[in-house]
């Protein structure tokens, strides 16, 4: 399973299943058709005893029900509350028969969540016959007499998932939606047993870096992903947008600040068109401290950027290997955001990256953005697999030692910010801004080779 497929299935669960009366049942019967565990499973989306989750596939390994006939599901009519299937349809020679079976076993109030590729290379399991466009899902609904409740095409490559939500009857919303899967309360984390695991350097704070950037860049719009207590958002003296699904504000915010209580993915999908009519001059990424989330945040921000936009990424330098764990075990926590720094350096050499030695966990400035660059979008799924699964969780010594990082109060930052301020008032191509930024950097060392 590729990353965007899991993320799209999670979106289906949160936006449809958890908002429906189905979740008021004491038992929700879930059938994953084609659910053999190949590089991951949707099972993690259905925790707890409320969900009776079963997988059905023609392969025997890691499957609850082995299908003797791929076009017959051994269940009575109207017996399954949720039928889901991802990355199966393209391998099914007569996919329309398989879908008709899903509709047959679906309960009247239930859902079918279907994900299939619209693009991508041949991958036989054991055959690879089709790619799908939105009209294909509309045709399936028409042929089987069900409703296509929602359909979207994900542009992240190489598969560009087509996602469909099907029902037999019109959807009804439950009175109180179930809590989402992506937002969990932050329980206090006890200090690690080893004091070194909670260590931070005696360096200027990332808040001081942000304050200086605000003062010298003077952006016309500031965007912040991950607000928490509001200390960084309070630094904005211009119109600002804060995005957080569960903010815990502990100080007043300036009157020009708009708070959007949503995940960053939902913000960019549902709110960005209205909120970002002007490209942000400055954006700060301090959301969920996991590589793929930080990567998506950067991709989305760049999509809405201008050549003068500066992105600041927090927590790129863990001070101890435990601080870099994907599962939090320390109070000072970076997760694997450091991999975003590595990813951008390796995959986007056009960008200008300036790592700063700030406390507690370093700051990365990213400039020279190009909203038309498709590299990260086209490679999203392979990149997530590469950096999340193949790159070791323990950071290399160059990251732990902050090799090549410039001082947090680096004097050359002023010249860099002046280039961006000048670009704001000109219709300048990203390549020209990138060249001017590199000229302003002058003798600053290459951070990954210093």
Question: Could you characterize what this model shows?
Answer:
The chain has 450 residues and is of the alpha/beta class. The protein has 2 domains: 3-167, Vaccinia Virus protein VP39 (Rossmann fold, 3-Layer(aba) Sandwich), CATH 3.40.50.150; 203-440, Rossmann fold (3-Layer(aba) Sandwich). Helices cover 28% and strands 18% of the residues. Helix 11 runs antiparallel to helix 12 (430-441). It is elongated and about 70 Å long. The mean pLDDT is 94.
**Unreliable stretches, pLDDT < 50, 5 or more residues?**
none
Radius of gyration: 24 Å
Structural class: alpha/beta
Question: What is the CATH domain class of the largest domain?
Answer: Alpha Beta
Q: What is the terminal separation in angstroms? A: 38 Å
Largest pleated sheet: 8 strands, mixed
At the fold tier of CATH, the topology name of the largest domain is Rossmann fold
The total strand number stands at 15
Reported CATH architecture of the largest domain: 3-Layer(aba) Sandwich
In spatial order, strands of the major sheet run 10-9-8-11-12-14-13-15
Taken together, the total number of domains comes to 2
Can you identify the CATH superfamily of the largest domain?
Vaccinia Virus protein VP39
What is the helix fraction of residues, given as a range? 25-40%
Query: Strand-residue fraction?
Result: 15-25%
The general outline is elongated
What is the count of DSSP helices, taking H or I runs of 4+ residues? Answer: 12
Order of helices and strands: HEEEEHEHEEHEEEHEHEHEEHHHEHH
Instruction: Provide the residue-averaged pLDDT.
Output: 94
